Amino acid sequence: MGRAAVFDVDGTLVDTNHLHVTTWWEAFRQAGHQVPMHAIHRAVGLGSEDLIAHLLGGRDRDEVDMLVAAHTTLYGTYFDRLPPLKDAGRLLRRLDHDGWNVVLATSASGHELSALRRAIGADDAIAATASADDVEAGKPAPEPVEHALELAGVPPEQAVFVGDTVWDMRAGTRAGVTCVGLLSGGIPSADLQEAGARAIYRDPAHLLAMLADSPLAPDT
Question: Contact 7/13 with Cβ under 8 angstroms?
Answer without folding.
Answer: yes
